[in-house]
Write a structure and sequence with these properties.
heterodimer; A: 589 residues; mainly alpha; two-stranded antiparallel sheet; 4 strands; 61% helix; 3% strand; extended; B: alpha+beta; Immunoglobulin-like; four-stranded antiparallel β-sheet; Swc4/Dmap1 (chain A); DAMP1_SANT-like (chain A); transcription (chain A)
């Protein structure tokens, strides 16, 4: 439904010729039946003749199209012969841009121009395979190395086992006959153990692979064996020679079985190298094409170790390459694959469980972090106010509860700070060194005021049990366990035995104890103050600028010292007068 | 006697307050038709706790300001905070600020009404205060209302909140002559300490002179 339809329905006629030129411009594409971009067709229809002043479609697009339509001239393409690669004798044809004449000219000008895609035809640099003789020697070397390695390894293992067995033997009966029986049993057991080891061993080799070749290999091995054997024997003095020999034999048998991994015929290996060359070391493909049922890792191992041998014989050998080749470890590779496989084979339930475990672990971590944070905060709290107070008062259970209350108050004060900090990453601050040892050290628990109030409260309860509500305020205050500073914050002060007149006064009008003097003295004090340019309230009224309890008492101190000074001065003056008198009496002047 | 009005002996509790006045010269546009021609200043006299969030209404029933008798209705009674009176005038005089505590034995406050005298200041009086171009004058004094041996009730009211927590910083740089902060107290203490030290040196000085004179006297007598 377009806008025109709507106008029809509403019976509104409209002169289509009317729209301004601007509008016509944009409406032309629709007239030509060209689709408009930037807007759905249906939507555009609804716009109708009321085309918006902005040009919806990109002008670029339209002009391009127009240009193309107007100036399109197909460029010439020609079919030309070519040879892919220089060494191939095939003639192929392909389409090339440009007229035939032009191409011919070009061809003539540089004939040697290579086929464009030739550069992608690369070959891997795989070492040339060696002849059979060399191969056999290499393989034998591998076998010897392996045998020796395994032999020493197993022997050590066996030794350990034997020692354990011996201990057992000692514990058991020592009769020879029984011993022999034991030995037989042990031997059997060992057989089992061997089996186990073989299963566990890094090299799980299919044993049924190429039986006849195995036979051949064994024949070859036997020739090497004797050279290994004698060197091993003297190293075991504890065990009898017979035992020793049989043990060694067993080990050798075992090792021999494992030598299966070296059951690679020359032909096979050649085939492997060939495949590697063809398939460019794409191991899955090679594995697929290889005729026997070796595993990929077996193929890799064989290829790499032979390569190492070959490369090592080369004159300018690339040590890095050799090292990287040597680094290949079949057991590790197998393990890795096993892991990957396990990872892939997880059931959804297992995955879910794993995830939940991870989440759980993270939660634990967070909790631990939080705990550490709190702990360190607590310790800093404990550490900050170190007083020289006696700890004995906290050794009772009540003392401990006092401590707790105090800490709670501190905690409140510190909460704001903590709130600030916790917005940031919750890294537990380092625990202060002295903190752990200073748990008991803390501030004054009961100031004089608190002690007084507590006793006051007690008294009140004794004398008037009806007072409860009122006492609560004191109780509440006491329960807050104020510190000296906090008492100041409340403006509380305990005057001890000082005499107080009940009622309200202004701090500045409180009588300073030091001002309890004769008028004449006060006058001279006033004079001194004025001399010192000390702010006063005027007359014999002295008050600090900011009369607080502290400034008032300081003021009092000043007043007293001035009075003292005046006293001494007066005495001195008197003495001076006396001396004068004496002098005049004695007629000295 | 109600238990409320029992007094807690040997302790005192105090509330810091500010009282005083602001004054500013009357500019023609500030004058109202009712303002007398000879009035030159507009001033406000007030009394308030130093901390804004301290509510003294449980204690204080009303505050009256006794102005100069020439004012119409010279005793102005303010029942709710802010306790202040704004007037115009031309002269300085002493205003009596009277705090009326809630009366009645059963309320338990049981304090006598209390007077504070404040000399109204219209002209700059302290050379240390910054001079303001608009002629603003502030005469604001810090003091503390001390309740000696408060009743239980007063004690209860005043310990609801710590009301002596003076700020450590001025709320604004140019309010130096209008606010009192904690460092002011420390400054004053230090200043007084300097004076005390001076006096002590002087005492020592005098004492030495006294001793010398005494010796001189003894030697004179003996000779």
């Amino acid at each position: 439904m377009s806008a025109n339809d709507i106008l029809d329905v509403l019976n509104i006629s409209r002169d289509d010729n009317q729209p301004a030129k601007k509008k016509q411009k944009t409406s032309t594409p629709t007239d030509n039946g060209k689709p408009l971009t930037g807007m759905a067709r249906e939507l555009y229809n609804l716009v109708g003749p009321n085309t918006p002043p902005i040009n919806l479609s990109s002008s670029n697009y339209i002009s391009n199209k127009g240009k193309q339509n107007r100036q399109f001239r197909p460029s010439p393409w020609s079919k030309v012969n070519f040879t892919p690669g220089k060494h191939r004798n095939i003639q192929l044809k392909h389409w090339v841009k440009g007229s035939e004449e032009l191409l011919k000219q070009e061809n003539e000008s540089d004939e040697k121009k290579e086929y464009f895609f030739e550069k992608f035809n690369i070959k891997l640099d795989i070492p040339e395979f060696i002849d059979e003789e060399k191969y056999e020697t290499y393989m034998n070397e591998f076998k010897d190395d392996f045998r020796e390695e395994q032999f020493t390894k197993r022997k050590a293992e066996r030794m350990r086992q034997l020692e354990e067995q011996k201990k057992q033997k000692k514990i058991e009966e020592k009769k020879e006959e029984e011993k022999r029986l034991e030995e037989k049993k042990e031997a059997e057991k060992q057989e089992e153990v061997k089996q186990d080891i073989k299963k566990e061993g890094e090299t799980k080799q299919e044993e049924n692979f190429l039986e006849e070749k195995k036979e051949e290999q064994k024949m070859g091995e036997k020739s090497v064996e004797p050279s290994v054997e004698p060197s091993k024997e003297p190293s075991e003095p504890v065990i009898t020679e017979e035992e020793q020999r049989s043990e060694d034999e067993k080990i050798k048998e075992e090792v021999k079985k494992e030598l299966v991994q070296f059951d690679w015929s020359y032909q096979e290996t050649k085939e492997l190298f060939n495949l590697c060359q063809i398939y460019e070391l794409k191991w899955p493909t090679i594995h697929d094409r290889f005729p026997s049922n070796h595993r990929v890792e077996d193929l890799k191992e064989q290829f790499y170790r032979i390569c190492v041998k070959i490369l090592e014989t080369e004159e300018n050998k690339n040590q890095n390459l050799i090292d990287s080749l040597k680094a290949f470890s079949k057991p590790r590779e197998l393990e890795r694959k096993q892991y990957l496989e396990n990872l892939l084979k997880r059931t959804p339930a297992e995955i879910a469980e794993e995830e939940s475990l991870v989440i759980e672990a993270r939660r634990f971590e967070l909790a631990a972090k939080k705990m550490l944070l709190e702990r360190s905060n607590l310790l800093t709290l404990l550490d900050s106010p170190q007083s020289t107070q006696n700890v004995s008062q906290y050794q009772s259970s009540q003392g401990i509860s006092n401590l707790y209350n105090n800490l709670m108050i501190y905690d409140k004060h510190q909460k704001k700070k903590q709130a600030h900090q916790q917005k940031q990453e919750p890294i537990p601050p380092p625990i202060p060194l002295a903190a752990s040892s200073s748990i008991r050290r803390d501030k004054v628990f009961q100031t004089n005021l608190q002690q007084y109030l507590a006793s006051f409260l007690k008294q009140a309860h004794h004398t008037n049990p009806a007072i409860k509500q009122e006492a609560n305020s004191i109780q509440q205050l006491l329960s807050k366990r104020l510190t000296q500073k906090e008492e100041e914050a409340y403006g509380l002060h305990y005057h001890g035995t000082e005499k107080l007149t009940p009622g309200v006064t202004l701090r500045s009008q409180q009588k300073l104890p030091g001002s309890n003097q004769r008028q004449s003295v006060l006058k001279s004090v006033s004079a001194v103050f004025q001399e010192m340019d000390l702010p006063t309230a005027g007359g014999t009224m002295w008050k600090p600028v900011m009369p607080t309890r502290k400034t008032m008492s300081k003021y009092d101190e000043l007043l007293r010292s001035v009075v003292t000074m005046l006293d001494i001065k007066r005495a001195k003056d008197k003495l001076e007068a006396e001396i004068k008198l004496i002098k005049s009496q004695k007629g000295m002047q | 006697m109600s238990s409320n009005s029992r007094r807690i002996k040997f302790i005192s509790i105090s509330v810091p307050i500010l009282y005083g006045n602001h004054a500013i010269k009357l500019t023609p546009d500030k004058r109202k038709p009712t303002t007398p021609q000879d009035h030159t200043h507009e001033w406000t006299v007030f009394l308030k706790p130093v901390l804004g969030d301290i509510d003294l209404t449980p204690l204080i029933k009303k505050v009256t300001f006794k102005l100069h008798e020439t004012y119409e209705n010279p005793i102005r009674s303010i029942e709710t905070p802010p306790y202040q009176v704004t007037e115009t005038g031309w002269g300085e005089f002493e205003i009596i600020i009277k705090i009326h505590f809630h009366p009645g034995v059963d309320l338990g406050i049981n304090e006598k009404n209390f007077q504070i005298f404040h000399g109204l200041k219209l002209h700059p009086y302290n050379p240390q205060h910054p001079k303001r171009e608009n002629g603003e004058v502030h005469s604001i004094l810090y003091d503390e209302l001390v309740f000696n041996e408060p009743t239980d009730k007063v004690f209860e009211i005043l310990t609801r909140k710590p009301c002596n927590l003076l700020p450590f910083k001025l709320s604004s740089e140019n309010k130096r002559d209008q606010e009192y902060i904690r460092p002011d107290e420390t400054d004053e203490l230090n200043r007084l300490d300097v004076y005390i030290d001076k006096i002590k040196v002087e005492i020592e000085n005098q004492r030495n002179q006294y001793k010398e004179l005494e010796e001189a006297k003894i030697s004179l007598i003996n000779s």
